[in-house]
Design brief:
The complex is a heterotrimer of chains A (300), B (323) and C (499).
Chain A (H helix, E strand, L loop, with lengths): L2 H53 L3 H4 L23 H31 L5 H10 L5 H14 L7 H4 L8 H12 L4 H8 L4 H12 L1 H16 L3 H6 L9 H10 L1 H5 L3 H35 L2
Chain B lengths: L1 H53 L14 H6 L7 H34 L6 H9 L6 H11 L12 H8 L11 H11 L5 H13 L2 H9 L4 H12 L1 H16 L5 H4 L10 H10 L7 H24 L12
Helix pairs in contact in B: 1-14, 3-7, 3-8, 3-11, 4-8, 11-14, 13-14
Chain C lengths: L1 H22 L8 H15 L10 E8 L2 H17 L3 E8 L3 H16 L8 E5 H9 L7 H6 L5 H4 L2 H6 L1 E2 L2 E2 L2 E2 L3 E2 L1 E5 H6 L15 H16 L4 E2 L4 E2 L6 E2 L5 H10 L16 H15 L12 H4 L5 E4 L4 H4 L14 E5 L11 E4 L1 E5 L6 H12 L1 H8 L9 H4 L33 E2 L2 H4 L8 H16 L6 H22 L3
Parallel strand pairs in C: 1-2, 1-3, 11-12, 14-16
Antiparallel strand pairs in C: 3-15, 4-5, 6-15, 7-14, 8-12, 8-13, 9-10
Helix pairs in contact in C: 3-16, 11-12, 12-20, 19-20
Classes of the chains: A mainly alpha (300), B mainly alpha (323), C alpha/beta (499).
């Protein structure tokens, strides 16, 4: 063995050693990262696992203490509770669909002049609109209750969707305005030259381009109203056949005759079912949701 | 003569122009019609009635007195006056807003920083972290009341978390059953909801132009320098937006009522719940007037805080692209 | 600056305009005499006091939408429509929670629009909820009807304790339907397993405190040493604790305090809650939990009893069908194993107190069909109605003429589900009804602020909850502190409602 060789092999070893170290360090880095990630995932999945596990326990298992995480029995029959809420689920679907369609639609309509036109009082209208964000629902709660009762809406499902036709809230309008500003103006100017009026421009050019933000708002409305509890509590009154699933569940949950028989397992089964809808919606429309958050949050 | 025709021509022209601009304005306003009608009926009319109720002793059936006495009650800080109750509720609400906001914004930021890198399966991890946000409020309330349930007298009847604590040899905690721990516990359950903030921050990071980082890297800035001089400043607009909206929303928190009621010794008696109970609960004959007055106090507070925030918003780094 | 001034000025102008327009809406509060006059006029003009069995009309009844109440209203209305075949009945079921919040709002709406068609003529109510309703003019003072109608006398009909429960001040707002007194149910099967002879629980007298405590301890020892698992609930026998009771329930909590000589309010209307007697009572219960003789606050209504996890249970007649229901997920108690004995004496005999309470039906103040409503109330209070109500098994009549009648329906249940009840001591439900039974009215009537009465009762239960939830090491200090704070809380509750 010559000196040269020794040197080169030494060098090669040295380089290999460095590479190995780097690899090892990188591997260690990865391991650490994934370890943290696993901890995070376990932490964040806890409510789901807890809910599902509890929904499979039997009633006698829940009594006499000794809380445990994994069920000892698998009692799927707890899920039969859904049958009791079937009518409520249909009611909720009706509310959610009307709100999810007309709310975003009117938001788009109201946003259009703000984004595209210069009209007298635009600044004032905009400021006025944004100031309604500050108004707490509590201020309007009581008079609105009496207004609804004068309009004979108390105890009717329509009280839950009557609000969908009036612009869908200032924040939504603002969101659409921000989005419409990103659509190049050339498109509708070209149409204007071709003799299209403003309504046609909105309906055939701008509105279709707003589809993503429309979808985002629609999903947001569906998710927000799916389990809404405050306004059904106020306005649905005694009409039990009109109750939405959130309200019916609340009454079920607080009713003393149900508290007395330990029903935690069935309650949890219902919770699982109620959580499914937003979960599925998110998984299907992930892209639009995240896209919408980008517009909503970033341009604010 | 000549000038007259000219002026009349001018007048006609300007009239025409005025007409055209009127028509244009009308078209614009026709788009706003839903908003205007809705606001008139469902916002402005109730606002006026709310003011009227706030100045009366309306109890649902009749008004027998009118004046500013409701506000007198609210600012009556004598031993048994409403002042202590109302401002006690406001205090609890502020504590909740501050605790919830700082915790969730800071932690969601850290979470986003951690998840903002490209390792395999990162997307799945992000989604899994976000999922708890999708559990409806009333359902998560059922989960947490169950998991955090406490029975100090009879340890075997404890909920899951206390059972685990005891298995680890620790003392069981009081959680929702003591005034001092119920608000922290409620804020703690908010941890499972930080995924929403995380997604937002990730979107914000995605919008920072990579050139900035490139330039910083060329200058030899390390990870933390880049973090504090680029990432954090560039996130301030979205931070501001979220502080404002979550403050407005947080001050009106009501959903906890379904599961936790008003808490032990009013420890979760948020102002919106106080308003609801004052108006619609039976044990006290519905005092709609007082409830409306409280709601107006809440409005003034929200408006003032928002104003202050916008006035002190100098720290926000708006990028070039923003208007 | 100018702008600001303009804004301030216009705000003031608006407020002024509001005040002026608001003054137009002011109505006068009615005085007691005016109310009396108004109702007497109403009775004279609109109510047919001589209405017979052939009376034609409609009756709207509002009741709680829970299985037990539905069963009762079914029985009552069934009998009523047999007696008055020409009266059409409209039912308005209402979710339990709504009773407290929604009904007053429905009333407001009806009052303001003048359209009472959605409102009932008769509604189920209890003493706990009606104070607020009365303040809103929702309930008819039925005593004026009673005075005007010679064929009926409330004083001769109802158990006095329940009559007192139906009054607010001088007026009567409710016709009591049931007389509910707490008894001790027991499970013969578990007693036998523990080797305790049934004779240790006499049926004709209450257990003395010494006997009762010995019984609890013997039961505990027996089950503590027992091996094996109960096939009915799949729990080891050692999990069984002797007594299931909802200690924080007002109707049990107050008699417990009272049994030890405790009090909430002094006779002069001042708060007298932080007393050694009360603390002794709470400590007694807390130590029952410590010794695993009863369950803590975490348990739900009689759930342990129906799960065969407790051989003894303090409950009322109102839950009888729940206890023997074996069709649910929980095992329940077989009717042949269910025994009943009077509530035991918890401390000294002189302070012996049994919790009691009632619910009943009130008439809506603006009832569209007052005649029918009055007919229904009279019918419900009479023997026919009471027997119909008792046929559900879950009731003891409020009509005192039926309490001891041997042939009364409540002592002779015919429904097949009760046929297996053996040796069932009905007398336990009326044991010392005239001397020992007590209601929360004992202290509620001493609270001079009417609106604060129910909140005070809740505050008492809350203190009990805190006491029973205190931790093992510090419970004595915790209980003392709980009563100290409870007394202050009651005082501030009363003062807080005094505006």
């Amino acid at each position: 063995m010559t000196d040269e060789q020794i040197i080169t092999t030494g060098e090669a070893e040295f380089i290999a050693e460095i590479k190995k170290r780097k690899q090892r360090r990188q591997a260690g880095y990865y391991v650490a990262k994934y370890a943290v990630a696993v901890i995070l995932v376990v932490f964040f999945m806890f409510p789901y696992l807890f809910m599902v596990n509890k929904s499979l326990m039997s009633a006698s298992e829940l009594l006499a203490g000794d809380a445990h995480f994994f069920p000892h029995h698998f009692q799927i029959s707890n899920y039969s509770i859904v049958k009791e809420f079937w009518g409520n689920i249909l009611n909720t679907l009706q509310v959610v669909l009307i709100n999810g369609f007309f709310g975003p639609l009117t938001s788009c309509i109201c946003a259009f002049p703000f984004a595209r036109h210069n009209f007298k009082g635009k600044k004032f209208m905009f400021a006025f609109m944004m100031s309604t964000v500050l108004l707490p629902t509590a201020v309007l709660m009581i008079p609105q209750y009496f207004l609804y009762s004068q309009l004979n809406l108390i105890g009717k499902l329509s009280s839950q969707w009557i609000g969908a036709f009036w612009g869908g809230g200032a924040l939504n309008i603002f969101l659409v305005i921000q989005f419409m500003r990103t659509i190049p103006k050339d498109v509708d100017n070209a149409a204007r030259v071709d003799g299209a009026n403003e309504y046609q421009i909105f309906l055939f050019i701008v509105f279709p381009l707003c589809f993503n933000v429309f979808l985002y708002m629609a999903i947001g409305a569906v998710m927000g109203l799916w389990m809404d509890f405050q306004s059904p509590l106020l306005y649905l009154g005694n009409a039990q056949d009109q109750y939405t699933v959130g309200l019916a569940f609340y009454y079920y949950y607080t009713s003393s005759s149900n508290v007395s028989s330990n029903m935690q397992n069935r309650l949890m089964a219902m919770c699982v079912v109620m959580s499914l809808v937003p979960l599925l919606l998110f998984l299907v429309f992930q892209k639009q949701m995240i896209g919408g958050i980008k517009i909503g949050g970033l341009k604010g | 003569m000549k000038s007259k025709t000219l002026s009349s021509e001018n007048a006609a022209l300007s009239r025409k122009r005025a007409l055209r601009s009127l028509k244009k304005n009308l078209v614009s306003y026709s788009f706003l019609l839903p908003f205007i009608v809705g606001t008139l009926i469902f916002t402005l009319y109730p606002i006026v009635m709310s003011l009227l109720y706030a100045l009366s002793n309306f109890n649902g059936t009749r008004i027998t007195q009118i004046g500013f006495f409701n506000f007198g009650y609210i600012f009556d800080f004598s031993e048994f006056g409403w002042g202590r109750r109302v401002f006690g509720s406001l205090g609890v609400t502020f504590l909740y807003v501050i605790g919830n906001m700082t915790l969730s914004l800071v932690l969601s930021y850290l979470l986003a920083l951690f998840l903002h890198r490209n390792i395999p399966a990162i997307r799945a991890i992000r989604v899994l972290c976000y999922l708890p946000c999708l559990i409806p409020g009333i359902a998560s309330g059922v989960i947490w009341t169950d998991a955090f349930s406490t029975n100090l007298a009879d340890p075997s009847m404890n909920g899951l978390f206390n059972t685990w604590l005891m298995k680890l040899g620790l003392e069981p905690m009081t959680f929702f059953t003591a005034a001092s721990t119920s608000l922290p516990t409620l804020i703690f359950t908010g941890l499972w909801g930080i995924g929403g903030g995380m997604i937002m921050w990730l979107a914000a990071f995605g919008n920072i132009s990579p050139e900035l980082y490139e330039a910083a890297k060329m200058d030899g800035a390390g990870y933390f320098r880049r973090l504090f001089f680029i990432t954090v400043p560039m996130s301030t607009p979205i931070l501001f937006y979220n502080v404002v909206t979550s403050m407005i929303g947080g001050l009106q928190v009501f959903g906890t009522y379904a599961n936790y009621g008003v808490g032990v010794e009013d420890s979760l008696h948020f102002i919106a719940i106080r308003i609801y109970i004052t108006a619609f609960q039976n044990t006290f004959p519905g005092n709609y007037g007082l409830a409306c007055a409280m709601a107006w106090i809440l409005f003034v507070i929200i408006a003032a805080l928002t104003l202050v925030m916008f006035k002190t918003g100098g720290w926000i780094q708006y990028g070039e692209g923003d208007e | 600056m100018k702008k600001l001034l303009c804004i301030i000025l216009s705000v003031f102008l608006c407020l002024g305009a509001l005040l002026v327009s608001g003054c137009g809406l002011i109505e006068k509060e009615q005085t007691d005499d005016e109310i009396r006059q108004e109702i007497e006029e109403l009775i004279e003009n609109e109510v047919d006091l001589d209405a017979g069995r052939d009376y034609t009309g409609t009756l709207k009844v509002l009741y709680q939408d829970i299985p037990s109440e539905t069963a009762i209203i079914d029985a009552l209305l069934g009998a009523f429509s047999q007696a008055y075949p020409n009266i059409t009945i409209e039912r308005i079921p209402m979710v339990e929670t709504n009773y407290l919040t929604l009904l007053p709002n429905m009333h407001s709406t009806a009052y303001r629009t003048g359209d009472y068609s959605e409102m009932p003529d008769v509604m189920w109510t209890t003493n706990e909820v009606f104070a607020g309703w009365i303040q809103r003019d929702m309930l008819m003072p039925v005593n004026y009807f009673d005075d005007a109608d010679d064929s009926f006398s409330a004083a001769d009909t109802f158990v006095e304790l329940m009559l007192e429960d139906s009054m607010l001040g001088e007026r009567m707002y409710m016709f009591p339907r049931d007389y509910d007194q707490i008894v001790m149910y027991y499970n013969r099967e578990l007693l036998e397993l523990a080797g305790i002879p049934e004779s240790r629980i006499p049926s004709d007298r209450a257990l003395t405190s010494a006997e009762f405590n010995q019984l609890l301890r013997d039961l505990r020892t027996a089950f503590d040493n027992m091996e094996g698992t109960n096939p009915a609930n799949e729990h080891p026998y050692s999990k069984v604790r002797p007594l299931d009771a909802i200690w924080t329930w007002g109707s049990l909590c107050w008699p417990t305090l009272k049994s030890f000589g405790g009090s909430v309010m002094a006779e002069d209307g001042s708060v007298d809650f932080n007393t050694p007697e009360n603390i002794r009572a709470a400590t007694y219960v807390r130590e029952l939990i410590r010794d695993e003789l009863t369950f803590g606050t975490g348990t739900t209504k009689h759930a342990n009893f129906v799960n065969n996890l407790a051989p003894l249970c303090f409950e009322t007649r109102a839950v009888l069908t729940d206890l023997i229901d074996q069709s649910q997920e929980v095992p329940g108690v077989a009717p042949k194993d269910l025994g009943v004995a009077p509530m035991p004496i918890l401390d000294s005999e002189e302070n012996y107190a049994i919790g009691a309470g009632c619910s009943g039906y009130g008439m809506y103040r603006y009832a569209e069909n007052p005649t029918e409503a009055w007919l229904f109330l009279k019918f419900m209070a009479g023997e026919e109605g009471q027997n119909a109500f008792c046929s559900t098994g879950n009731g003891v009549p409020s009509n005192k003429n039926l309490l001891f009648a041997e042939n009364a329906t409540w002592r002779n249940l015919t429904d097949p589900q009760f046929s297996a009840l053996t040796n069932f001591n009905h007398d336990a439900f009326v044991y010392k009804w005239d001397t020992a039974a007590c209601t929360l009215q004992d202290f509620k009537l001493l609270v001079d602020v009417v609106a604060a009465r129910e909140p005070v009762a809740q505050a008492v239960s809350e203190v009990m909850t805190i006491c029973l939830g205190s931790s093992l090491d510090t419970y004595q200090a915790d209980i003392a502190r709980a009563f100290e704070r409870g007394a202050a809380n009651i005082y501030s509750t009363i003062e807080g409602y005094r505006i």
